[in-house]
Design goal:
The structure holds two protein chains of two kinds. Chain A is mostly helical. Chain A is 60% helix and 9% strand. In chain A, strands 1-3-2 form a three-stranded antiparallel sheet. The mean pLDDT of chain A is 86. Chain B has a single domain, classed as 2-Layer Sandwich (Endonuclease, Chain A). Chain B is built from seven helices and eleven strands. The radius of gyration of chain B is 18 Å and the shape is globular. The chains are: A mainly alpha, B alpha/beta. At the A-B interface, helix 2, helix 3 and helix 5 of A face strand 3 and strand 4 of B. Chain A: InterPro entries: DUF7344 (IPR055768), WH-like_DNA-bd_sf (IPR036388). Chain A: Pfam families: DUF7344. Chain A: It comes from Haloarcula amylolytica JCM 13557.
Chain lengths: 126, 239
C-alpha cells in the first residue's frame, strides 16, 4: 500500500487543537505566510505583504489581484494575529515582525500537509 | 539634451527587484544583477508557473510581475514577436513593460531592444496616427526592418521619420522620411519615440546608447513629458 494513503498519525493533537490549526490555515494569505516563514523563519510585515500580493496575483493571473496597502492592513489586523493566537508564529506588532514559532512535530506535520496540498493544487497544475 | 545626459538622470534611481520562487529561479536574480539592478532571490515553493518578482522603487512597493514574463524578456525577448498575433496582447509582458519603465538597464541586447521597438511600433500601428521617430544608428540597419515599416506607413496615417548615419540610400516609401545624419550625436544610439498624435496615454519612447563593451544601456518610458522631450531632441539633431 502506498504510504501516502495511510491516515496521518498526529499523536498528541486534541480535536480542539486540530480545529484551531485548520481554522488558522483556512485563509490563503495565512497559508502563504506560513509557507514563507517555514523557508525564512522571520520576516517583516512589508516583506510578507510583498509575498502575499505577488503570489496572489501570480496564482490569479490577474494584474490587480490585490492592493498592497489593503493587504498590509489585513495582515496586521487579522491574519498575523490569528497565526499568533494559534501559536504558529509570534507577531511583534510594535516591530511589525513575524517569527515562526517552535512547533510540535504533530502540529508541523498537519500544517505542512495543508500547505503542500495548497501549493500542489494551485501552483503545479496546468 | 543628449541621450547620455538623459540616461544620467536615471542613474541614481533606487530600484530593487526580489525574485520569489523555487531554486531554479535563482538565475533570474543573477541576470537582473547584470542589468545593474539591485536584485535578490528568496526561496519560495511556488512551482515554476507561479514564481513572481516584486519591484520596489525608493523602498516602496511598485509592482508584482509573473516571473515567466521577466524570464522571457531577459532570456528570449523576441519569442512570439513577428508572429501574426499582436505581441503586446500578453498581459504579463505588458505588465513587465510598465513595471520596468523609467528603469536604466545596463546591458540590453539588440534582441531586447528589437522586442521593445516592435511593441512600440505595434502601439503606433494601433493608434494609427501621430509622429514616429526612429534611429537605428545607421540607415543600413533599417534594411531588415523595411517590410515592417512599409506596412506601418501604408496601413496608417503615421508620419514616420527614420534617422541614421548615411551609409545606405533608402528607397522612397510614401509616409516615411529619411534623415541621413552627418552629426555623430545619434551614431551610438538606438531610439524610438512615438507622440500618439498628442494622446498622453499612448506616448512611448525607447532610448539606448551602445556601450564600449558592446551591449546597450538604456530605458523605455511612457512618461508623456519625457517622450515629448525625446521627440524634441531628435528633431533638433537634424536641424
Amino acid at each position: 500500500m502506498d504510504q501516502h494513503e495511510q491516515p496521518v498519525e498526529t499523536p498528541g493533537l486534541s480535536s480542539k487543537r486540530l480545529d484551531t490549526l485548520l481554522r488558522t490555515l483556512a485563509a490563503e494569505p495565512r497559508r502563504m505566510i506560513y509557507t514563507y516563514l517555514t523557508e525564512h523563519d522571520s520576516a517583516s510585515i512589508a516583506e510578507l505583504t510583498d509575498v502575499v500580493v505577488g503570489w496572489s496575483s501570480a496564482r490569479a493571473r490577474d494584474t490587480d489581484a490585490c492592493n498592497w496597502d489593503d493587504t498590509r492592513t489585513s495582515l496586521h489586523h487579522r491574519h498575523l494575529p490569528v497565526l499568533d493566537d494559534a501559536g504558529v508564529i509570534s507577531y511583534d506588532a510594535a516591530q511589525r515582525t513575524a517569527t515562526l514559532a517552535s512547533l510540535s512535530p504533530s502540529t508541523a506535520e498537519v500544517l505542512a500537509t495543508i500547505t503542500d496540498l495548497d501549493t500542489a493544487e494551485t501552483d503545479h497544475e496546468d | 539634451m543628449t541621450v547620455r545626459t538623459l540616461l544620467r538622470r536615471f542613474e541614481d534611481s533606487d530600484v530593487e527587484i526580489t525574485v520569489y520562487g523555487p531554486p531554479a529561479t535563482k538565475t533570474v536574480g543573477e541576470r537582473l544583477a547584470t542589468q545593474g539592478i539591485d536584485a535578490t532571490w528568496q526561496k519560495l515553493p511556488t512551482g515554476h508557473r507561479n514564481a513572481f518578482a516584486v519591484i520596489r522603487r525608493d523602498g516602496v512597493f511598485a509592482e508584482a510581475v509573473p516571473l515567466t514574463a521577466l524570464q522571457a524578456f531577459l532570456c528570449d525577448p523576441t519569442a512570439g514577436i513577428g508572429d501574426s498575433e499582436a505581441p503586446d496582447s500578453d498581459p504579463g509582458r505588458q505588465l513587465l513593460r510598465s513595471a520596468l519603465a523609467n528603469t536604466l538597464l545596463a546591458s540590453l541586447t539588440p534582441a531586447q531592444l528589437l522586442a521593445t521597438s516592435h511593441e512600440f511600433e505595434d502601439r503606433a500601428y494601433r493608434v494609427g496616427e501621430g509622429t514616429l521617430r526612429v534611429s537605428f544608428q545607421s540607415l543600413s540597419i533599417f534594411r531588415s526592418q523595411r517590410a515592417r515599416y512599409q506596412t506601418l506607413a501604408s496601413d496608417t496615417e503615421l508620419d514616420i521619420h527614420v534617422y541614421g548615419r548615411d551609409d545606405w540610400e533608402p528607397p522612397a516609401i510614401p509616409g516615411i522620411s529619411f534623415h541621413p545624419l552627418t552629426d555623430t550625436a545619434l551614431e551610438q544610439v538606438w531610439l524610438l519615440a512615438f507622440d500618439a498624435a498628442g494622446d498622453d496615454q499612448n506616448k512611448c519612447a525607447l532610448v539606448a546608447e551602445e556601450t564600449e563593451d558592446g551591449p546597450f544601456r538604456g530605458l523605455w518610458t511612457y512618461n508623456p513629458r519625457l517622450v515629448d522631450e525625446i521627440m524634441t531632441a531628435v528633431v533638433a539633431v537634424d536641424e
